């Protein structure tokens, strides 16, 4: 069969009713929220594409696993199941549970990052960089240049580390001042872009040459494995599980938010091979998260997490997941909408600077566009541009090259009909783009301002 889309590898067993406000009601709601889609009430949202973090639909087996929750304060059997699952899938010796990914980032940064240290990575992620900077470190972007060009469709692995940039940094600041390199698989703020297996191996070899740890941000590692299977020579006939196992053989550890490729609503972990790092992490997790056998998660959550990690490796599941994102991206391309290409693994990213060329970056075009899409349709998206980038230590805005709006697809939640509605909403917004105004802050938090900042239109 030659369908235009990949049919769902599941059937619906439960539904949640949706409602859509009138346009007048939506205008009042976004104004009350300070033109920040994060501050909208979920009951005021029709289709929620804010994030794929914790917004997934769990399977019947995961729901059954909730009933198997062992809520012992220490030594829960669900913890041992989760630990064994991570060790089998990724191959790491040690696992420290956390309530979500940023809990793992906090542990790693507190243990390894010090004032005067540098942490290279393939483009920053908001919470990751915040933890590094709060501990006195300096993030350095060593991603390939093409990652910053939204329409470079001919680059299949835009998440790759630029080895020359990386080695140049090592020689400049000294390997002893680089506690680890953080490799995102995939790279969220580049548009959900993957890293090739060849590049992962080269980064690992170069790092170990200088005695530097390689730590993955493996939040969406299954999506990365799918792109390797589809785009990299020699992997077409390998299973997703086999590709994943090889990927992690080129890492010394990883932080994980289970709320994405774990297909659950909460949970995460820090994994590693190094015994000393493990001992420090287990001591610190008690302070911030909980016992080393639950780390802020309930037993039932750990059981659902371990089941979800296994389900995510299913080749049919991940094909549908990534191809559903591509379906929306292709619809927008057909409608003449400027997006990041190639289409990524978890979201479609609108290029707000090309969408709204009349709004300077200092007036937050991506933030304005996300608000306007909500007003148009009740669809909630999110800004990934200057607001997310924040300010440096001197208080100056970063002004990243990519000023994006993210349309993030939750796993196993929406139908193709929902995505058709989203595409139409974005296209309708594009047709009245010249009417959209820039924004200014009315409240700016000192850290991670995109979560709770408030704005108003510039008249």
Explain what you see:
By secondary structure, the protein is α/β, with parallel strands linked by helices. The chain has 2 domains: 173 residues, Aspartate Aminotransferase, domain 1 (Alpha-Beta Complex); 251 residues, Aspartate Aminotransferase, domain 2 (3-Layer(aba) Sandwich). It has 17 helices and 14 strands. The strands form 5 sheets. Strands 2-8-7-6-5 form a 5-stranded mixed sheet, with helices on both faces. A 3-stranded antiparallel sheet has the order 9-12-11. Helix 2 runs antiparallel to helix 11 and helix 8 crosses helix 9. The termini are far apart.
Give a quick set of tags describing it.
17 helices; 40% helix; Aspartate Aminotransferase, domain 1; three-stranded antiparallel beta sheet; five-stranded mixed beta sheet; 459 residues; alpha/beta
SSE layout:
Blueprint: H1 23-32, E1 47-48, H2 60-66, H3 77-90, E2 94-98, H4 101-112, E3 118-121, H5 126-134, E4 138-141, H6 163-173, E5 180-184, H7 197-209, E6 213-217, H8 221-231, H9 240-248, E7 253-257, E8 268-272, H10 275-288, H11 299-311, H12 315-334, E9 347-351, H13 352-355, H14 365-377, E10 379-380, E11 382-384, H15 386-389, E12 404-408, H16 416-431, E13 439-443, H17 449-452, E14 454-457
Parallel strand pairs: 1-10, 3-4, 5-6, 6-7
Antiparallel strand pairs: 2-8, 7-8, 9-12, 11-12, 13-14
Helix pairs in contact: 1-14, 2-11, 3-11, 4-5, 4-10, 8-9, 12-16, 14-16
GO molecular function: tyrosine phenol-lyase activity
EC number: 4.1.99.2
Protein name: Tyrosine phenol-lyase
């Amino acid at each position: 069969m030659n369908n235009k889309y990949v049919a769902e590898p599941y059937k619906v067993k439960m539904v949640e009713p949706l409602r859509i406000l009138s346009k007048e009601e939506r205008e009042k709601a976004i104004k009350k929220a300070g033109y920040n889609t994060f501050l909208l009430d979920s009951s005021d949202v029709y289709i929620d594409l804010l994030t794929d973090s914790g917004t997934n639909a769990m399977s019947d087996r995961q729901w059954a696993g909730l009933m198997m929750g062992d809520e012992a304060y220490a030594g829960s059997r669900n913890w041992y199941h989760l630990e064994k699952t991570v060790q089998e899938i990724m191959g790491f010796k040690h696992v420290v549970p956390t309530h979500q990914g940023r809990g793992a980032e906090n542990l790693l940064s507190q243990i390894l990052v010090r004032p005067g240290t540098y942490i290279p990575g393939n483009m920053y992620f908001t919470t990751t960089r915040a933890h590094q900077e709060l501990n006195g470190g300096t993030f350095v972007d060593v991603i390939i240049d093409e990652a910053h060009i939204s329409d470079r469709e001919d680059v299949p692995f835009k998440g790759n580390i630029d080895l020359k940039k990386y080695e140049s940094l090592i020689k400049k600041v000294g390997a002893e001042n680089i506690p680890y390199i953080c490799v995102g698989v995939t790279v969220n703020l580049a548009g959900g872009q993957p890293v090739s297996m060849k590049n992962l191996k080269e980064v690992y070899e170069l790092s170990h040459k200088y005695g530097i740890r390689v730590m993955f941000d493996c939040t969406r590692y299954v999506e990365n494995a799918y792109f390797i299977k589809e785009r990299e020579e020699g992997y077409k006939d390998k299973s997703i599980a086999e590709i994943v196992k090889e990927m992690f053989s080129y890492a010394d550890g990883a932080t994980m938010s289970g709320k994405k490729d774990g297909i659950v609503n909460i949970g995460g972990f820090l994994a590693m091979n190094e015994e000393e790092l493990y001992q420090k992490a287990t001591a610190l997790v008690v302070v911030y998260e909980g016992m080393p056998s639950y780390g802020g998660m309930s037993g039932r959550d750990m059981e659902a997490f371990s089941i979800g990690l296994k389900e995510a490796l299913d080749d049919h599941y991940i094909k549908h997941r990534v191809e559903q994102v591509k379906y929306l991206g292709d619809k927008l391309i057909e409608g003449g909408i400027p997006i990041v290409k190639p289409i990524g693994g978890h979201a479609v990213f609108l290029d707000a600077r090309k969408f709204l060329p009349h709004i300077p970056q200092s007036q937050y075009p991506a933030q304005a566009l996300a608000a306007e899409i909500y007003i148009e349709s009740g669809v909630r998206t999110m800004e990934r541009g200057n607001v997310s980038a924040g300010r440096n230590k001197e208080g100056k805005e970063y002004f990243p090259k990519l000023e994006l709006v993210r349309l993030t697809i939750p796993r196993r939640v929406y139908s193709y009909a929902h995505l058709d509605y989203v595409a139409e909403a974005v296209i309708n917004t594009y047709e009245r783009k010249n009417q959209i105004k820039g924004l200014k802050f009315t409240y700016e938090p000192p850290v991670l301002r995109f979560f709770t900042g408030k704005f108003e239109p510039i008249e």
